[in-house]
Design brief:
The chain is of the alpha+beta class and about 300 residues long. The protein folds into two domains: about 160 residues, no CATH class; about 110 residues, Beta Barrel (OB fold (Dihydrolipoamide Acetyltransferase, E2P)). The chain is built from seven helices and twelve strands. The strands form two sheets. A seven-stranded mixed beta sheet has the order 6-7-11-12-10-9-8, with helices on both faces. A hairpin with a 7-residue loop joins strand 2 and strand 3. Helix 6 crosses helix 7. The longest helix has 14 residues. It is elongated, with a radius of gyration of 21 Å.
């Protein structure tokens, strides 16, 4: 039996704060339907469909028809949260596309969260993307290639600043005793990206300031700090710093970085980490000396 829902989603909540759900739906439309909706106009949603999959908590998955501001799409899978506070559309995709795992925050989530950060002044404009860009540049690839990595795309496409930016106003996450989840690990978020030529050699280093979960922290060869950094969808990347070859800090300084990272290792909270890449290389390096400079009092 088909059920019908009509939902109005505004850019702002009743208290005036930006509405995450609105931006998530707008970016989902761009990613799934190649439909670039407005980021400032209220979204009118109509749904009609039958239950399609087993329920997840208070969320029910349907197969049917979805209409976004009067534009209709058929044979769509959509997820609705029916809680005491009301009916909420969570996500949607064409039946022919691979879907979102229940409880995950993949796909359009990173674009929506970055845009909210931009609205609050915590993320630079150069680190966000419009629905038009998402619809035209990655929608087809994302939906056809199961190995497509949105995190890599964002990091590569985000514009690098010509100089190190001011310290971000986004606070560092408070460390928690909650263990690193086996599934749905919190995603990496790009906070800043800039280029520097500290040696004035004409070869630039590109620096990436990110929030990410880490695990398996240890001291490696040549006094290197080593760990696994969560990249996307449960995949981790091995990173290490310059160790004793770091020109700008010593073992005492890097021990501060190690002790800071210890508070986050194998836990659900994300550490503020700075990675650097030399020139056109593909090797990510933990920039301990830059972390000492930018994180300051956050380090032990």
């Amino acid at each position: 039996m088909n059920k019908k829902f009509t939902i109005t989603v505004a850019p702002a909540l009743s208290d005036g704060k930006p509405n995450y759900r609105f931006y998530k739906l707008v970016y989902t439309a761009a990613l799934r339907f190649k439909l670039p909706l407005s980021l400032i106009e209220t979204l009118e949603v109509s749904l009609e469909g039958a239950e399609y999959q087993a329920k997840y908590k208070l969320r029910t998955t349907y197969l049917g028809v979805i209409s976004l501001n009067g534009i209709k799409f058929e044979n769509v899978v959509y997820v609705v949260d029916q809680s005491p506070r009301g009916i909420e559309l969570i996500t949607f995709w064409r039946r022919s596309q691979r879907g979102d795992a229940a409880g995950s925050k993949g796909g359009a989530h990173q674009f929506a969260e970055a845009y909210l950060g931009y609205l609050s002044g915590k993320v630079l404009q150069s680190q966000i993307f419009s629905p038009e860009v998402v619809a035209t540049e990655i929608s087809d690839t994302y939906n056809s290639d199961s190995k497509f990595n949105i995190t890599i795309w964002i990091i590569q496409k985000a514009r690098a600043l010509d100089a190190e930016p001011n310290e971000p106003s986004e606070p560092i996450e408070v460390t928690t005793n909650d263990p690193l989840p086996q599934e749905f690990v919190p995603e990496l978020l790009l906070r800043n990206k800039w280029k520097t030529d500290v040696l004035r050699s004409g070869t630039f280093y590109t620096n990436y300031e990110v929030d990410a979960c880490i695990k398996d922290l240890k001291w490696g060869r040549d006094e290197r700090i080593c760990c696994q950094l969560h990249w996307e969808d449960g995949k981790f990347l091995h990173i290490e710093d310059f160790g004793k070859f770091d020109r700008y800090t010593d073992k005492i300084g890097r021990t501060r970085v190690f002790e800071y990272l210890q508070g986050y290792a194998n836990r659900a909270s994300r550490a503020r980490v700075i990675l650097t890449v030399k020139g056109d290389a593909t090797q990510w390096t933990l920039a301990s000396s830059t972390m000492i400079k930018r994180l300051g009092e956050a380090l032990p």
